Amino acid sequence: MPADFVREVDYVARLARLFLEPEEKEHMAGQLSDILENARRIQELDTTGIEPTSHVTELPAVLREDRVRPSLPLERALQNAPRRKEGFVRVPRITLSEEEQE
Amino acid sequence: MNYDVVIGLEIHVELLTASKLFCGCSTAFGREPNSNCCPVCLGLPGSLPVFNRRAIELALKAALALNSEVQLQSRFDRKNYFYPDLPKAYQVSQYDQPLARGGYLEVEFEDGIHRVHLERVHLEEEAGKLIHAGDSIIGAGHSLVDYNRAGIPLLEIVTAPELHSGREARYFLEDLRTVLLYSGSSDCKMEEGSLRCDANISLRPKGSRELGTKAEVKNMNSFRSVELALDYEVGRQERVLSEGGKVIQETCHWDEEKKQTIALRSKEGSSDYRYFPEPDLLPLVLESSFIEELSRQLPELPARRRERLQEQYGLEKEEAFLLTANRDLGDFFEEAAKEYPDYRHLAKWVQGDLLYQLRESLKKVDELEPGLLADLLLLLDEGKINRPVAKELLAEMVKTGADPKEMVKDRGLEQISGRDTLLPVVEKVIAQNPEAVENYRRGKKKALAFLVGRVMAETQGRADPAELNRILQEKI
Amino acid sequence: MNLYEKTASELSRMLQSREVSAVEVTTSFLERIDQVDPHLKAFITRTAEQALDTAGRIDYFRQQGEQLHPLAGVPVAVKDNISTMDLRTTCASLILKDYIPPFDATVITALKSAGMPILGKTNLDEFAMGSSTENSAFFPTRNPWNLDRVPGGSSGGSAVAVAAGMAPLALGSDTGGSIRQPASLCRVTGLRPTYGRVSRYGLVAFASSLDQIGIISMNALDSALFLNLIAGYDPLDSTSLPGEVPDYTAGLEPGLEKLRVGVIRYGSTEGFDPEVTEMVQKAASLLEKSGANVGEVSLPLTDYGLSAYYLIAPAEASSNLGRYDGVRYGFCAGGDSIEEMFNRTRGKGFGPEVKRRIMIGTYALSAGYYDAYYLKAMKVRTLVRRSYEEAFKKYDLLLGAASPTPAFKLGEKTGDPLQMYLSDVCNITDSLAGVPSLALPGGAHTSGLPLGLQLTAPPLREKLLLQMACFFEKYSEQAPRRPVLDFIEGGSSDEL
User: Fold this and answer.
1) Which of A76, B279, C63, C244 has the fewest CB atoms lying closer than 10 Å?
2) What fold, for A3-43?
């Protein structure tokens, strides 16, 4: 398995915000490589002129009336929030540090 | 400067629906945080979106008002990225099959009318709101998230890169705002966040056809900020280029206090949004009869109205602009004009005293009967009341909706212009104020005003100023 | 015979005739769960109190002479990826270990309105990704027919609950075979409805264009009864189908004279146990003898379909699982910065299979690869759909196997994801086409492990599937019906 695939794995893991330990990453790179190779077999099929299926249901969109419905009470809305501050959800620093910009 | 400035704007406008785009939560502004939320707009596991019909209608109306070509078939896509204000870690938006393509707005710049083209108009959902500890995202140790705004329908309007200065951007935005108000799609209040603008700006050597590297400018909270931020950015980029440097493609945050843009570096690769068709929403298929019906529902749009106000009422361009920009005021003017043919005079009062009084008493123009202003001005024209009295009456009309004709009658406010009535009063005042008379004779003009004031006081302000002046001058 | 050995239809009848009370019925199942679940581990959360509460209320209303739903008082087990209000819904993941939904899935609202006591939430492969229930972050579930074997997945918990008499009915979900394959491995009946027939609102999304909630039961009539309750248009699910829901319990025993059945010849049967192929042939002969027109249909795109599925499903999953970021709910690993929090939360909270699929999905959608992977897979999906349309021009029904093998050993395939994915080879193309499909007991392997048949019909023809399942129940030899649970002291349940 080529070294640039590991770099791809790095890129994809960052894109997906999945922190992987080095051993995890290596192990996964091997499995992913196999899975993707299997997946690539679909390249063998001729799909010229074939429309992609994004929905099996061939009906047009459903539209609902613009009517206000009751919302969840605040306590319900935030009942599972790990970090809160009064009525808000709290999150740590958003801007990137020097390291994270690498 | 040796460079041409190229600016493109990306405007987001919240549509005026009662409920959100995909759920029934209220879109009302200013509620307690996280009190307008439900499983759908919070993106709780298992939740699913369902389109709001009115959002589609308002989006289409806006697109039509902007001369954009409505696509009878369009689709929604997921734009995937991670940010705490994005509940599902994707935004439902439209990527390659937007609601409308193209379009334009004709804007008057200093050198004439320009047609500013649009690339597209599409529908997407709002994210929640972030409040940063310390008021700025830069250096904030933590942030707070309010999801009330998440899921509100948003119209995205993208212009072609055809603007060339901060001022042009501002003019464009002002006109865009007017058009959107007329189409009824949004209330366009930047201060409430229902209209937001990001800009892409680059410089290129004069005459060059290639686009330079662009910077994205965000966080401009008023049309004026847009102008200032873009002017600043032009200056910054020019400095970089003339010193032989290269402009980096980055996102810049406008700091309102420091009046400068600050680069916000973001991770490379973080803008791979992995767009793919939204599986939870079926494609939007519109009937052309539906589009035609919406088109018919559009009122006369600003550009046309401005022209017509000038043609039909002989108004000056500025007057037409003002009466168009403030739609209700324009409507009021046209109603009143049915009963009062001196249009210029009417326009002056509407834009001047009426507007002033409305602001003072915090009233809206549609609370006042247009006919009443017509009556007031007729009384003035007929000499039945004088200007100062008219102004007072107007103030009261705005506050209480009272009828000027009745007020004049009941309070005996008719103007006094009869010489016989005025003469004795003038003589009395002259007699009582010998000093002032002396002062005036010596050349002190203010003394005359004083004497006029005394007569006014004596006559409860009803003296005809012109006649009064004549008599006084005679007698002194 | 114990109440827990009765079918849902039998229980419904007994409850309606007041032969038994709902409390007695629910108690019987709760005791059964106490007895056998410690060995099988089908349940993540048990809700004995609430179940008895519901049962008590049903008894009360029935006493008052109120008209109740036929399923009132019939208990049910629910797969733990279906949202239940105020009852934790974990998806068998650490990242949702303590998540408590503030709302019910539409199907749950339906079963609560009908008065069905909920016995508990059943185990699954994490986020429904898997074919053995070994990917659960908590513990694997064991096959009651042989405790060293997997029950299949991802709805393993639900299949075992029904197979071992812990529940007469269970809700599961099927994306690429997650109801049918475990049903086959546990000798129960598993129905995947037409895409859109049953509302997905409240089903924690894995692959939105493929997911469907379905039913696990002991027989077709039970499935029909339950389908009547949960099928139908839901205004909260834009992909749910409009139109009337027929009475699935009516006319379940027609003749077969005009029926055209296509026996599926898979693209490659490498990896198929020969007894599975034999089972399908026997079933085909039975149909022929009984008057049906039986022919052969090949689905050459099966292998390509499998590859396409393993791009489409992970791609949608990578997007659906983005929301688990530690901000609004679920596990949060903390961190100095939001980026650190995202990465650590997701790195720690997700299991290896989930991470693998997120990686594949993210890759397949990423810039530069979208066309070759995801877009191409969507086109292959169109080809698969067309091949079904062609097949259904010639045949009313397709017959095949619900799994290429009987239950494999725990740990046998966990080291090789591709091998594991092949367990779905019989089920995946049905999912891609959005057609309804039903797994039913097809006989026993010489090892004693169950084998399952699979029937596939055109869209919205669930009735036909149920009719055929009834036919097979009647005419094919199907003993024993229940597994012998050796670990129970003092004997085990008898066969019927």
Assistant:
1) C244
2) Histone, subunit A (1.10.20)
